[in-house]
Write a structure and sequence with these properties.
Strand content: under 5%
Number of strands: 0
Number of domains: 1
Shape: globular
Largest sheet: none
Length: 248
C-alpha cells in the first residue's frame, strides 16, 4: 500500500505538471519520467496477470515477455513520449546526453561505477562457499553499494542535475525490468540473476521481491523528481539542501 500510494502521488504530480505545460512546451525531462513510470506499472500489471495462469520460466513465456515489452515500448509508450515532447525520443535523448563535455565526463564516471558494482557482485559470488546453507554478504559489502550510490549522486547534483534526473529514470527502468526478469524467471537471465543476488539479501528482502536497491534509488531521486524546478533554483537560499535530502 505504501508503494502504491507513493507511485500514485508521484504520477499524480507528474500528470499535473504535464497538463499545466500547455502546447507541449513543458520540459521533456518531466514527460520522460511520467511515461517511464506509467510504462513500468502497465507492464507489471500485464505480466503479473498473464504469468498467474502460465509458467513464466519457459522459453515461450520468455519470448512473449520480450515481444510484449518491445511492442508496448516501441508501439505505445515511445509514440506517446514523442507526442508530448514534439520530437523523436531517441534523437532528443542522444542530443541531451552529448550536450556538453561535463555530461560526457559524468556518463563515463557513472559507467565506471556501474562496472565496479558488477565486478563486486561477481567477485562476492565467486567467494561464496558451497558448504554454506545460507550464504550472505557482510554488512560492509552491502554498504559498499551505498557508497557507490552516493558517489554517483553527489557529482550529478553538483555539476548537472538535469542529467542526474534522466539517468535516475533510466536506472529505475533498468532495475524494475531486471526485477521482472528475475522474479518471473525469464530466460536466459532470470535464474542467473536469482543466483547472483541471493548473496546480498537480508531481512528486508524476505519476500519474493528484491526491492532494497529500488528503495535506495527512489529515496535518493524523489527530491529532484518531484521538485526539479525548486532543486534547480536552490543553489542558494532556504532550499539549498533540498536536492541533497535524498543523499543525506
Amino acid at each position: 500500500l505504501i508503494i502504491l500510494g507513493g507511485l500514485s502521488f508521484a504520477v499524480n504530480q507528474l500528470i499535473k505538471r504535464s497538463l499545466s505545460a500547455a502546447g507541449g512546451k513543458g520540459d521533456p525531462v518531466d514527460y520522460f519520467l511520467l511515461v517511464a513510470l506509467v510504462a513500468l506499472v502497465v507492464l507489471g500489471i500485464i505480466f503479473a496477470s498473464l504469468f498467474f495462469f502460465m509458467d513464466s520460466s519457459t522459453w515461450t513465456s520468455s519470448l512473449f515477455f520480450y515481444l510484449m515489452t518491445a511492442v508496448l515500448g516501441l508501439g505505445i509508450f515511445m509514440p506517446w513520449l514523442q507526442y508530448l515532447i514534439k520530437r523523436h525520443p531517441l534523437f532528443w535523448l542522444v542530443e541531451f546526453l552529448i550536450q556538453s563535455k561535463t555530461r560526457l565526463y559524468l556518463l563515463a564516471f557513472w559507467t565506471f561505477l556501474a562496472l565496479t558494482a558488477c565486478v563486486v557482485v561477481l567477485y562476492q559470488n565467486s567467494k561464496r562457499s558451497t558448504n554454506s546453507k545460507k550464504p550472505q554478504a557482510s554488512t560492509i559489502t552491502r554498504k559498499y553499494f551505498h557508497f557507490l550510490a552516493v558517489a554517483t549522486y553527489i557529482p550529478g547534483l553538483i555539476y548537472d542535475r538535469p542529467l542526474l534526473f534522466v539517468a535516475a529514470v533510466v536506472c529505475l527502468v533498468a532495475f524494475v525490468l531486471l526485477e521482472y526478469v528475475r522474479y518471473f524467471r525469464i530466460k536466459p537471465l532470470g535464474q542467473t540473476l536469482r543466483t547472483l543476488l541471493t548473496l546480498f539479501l537480508d531481512e528486508r528482502d524476505s519476500g519474493p521481491l528484491i526491492l532494497t536497491h529500488i528503495y535506495l534509488l527512489l529515496g535518493m531521486s524523489l527530491p529532484i523528481w518531484l521538485f526539479p524546478r525548486l532543486c534547480a533554483a536552490s543553489l542558494s537560499g532556504p532550499s539549498t539542501l533540498l536536492p541533497y535530502s535524498g543523499v543525506l
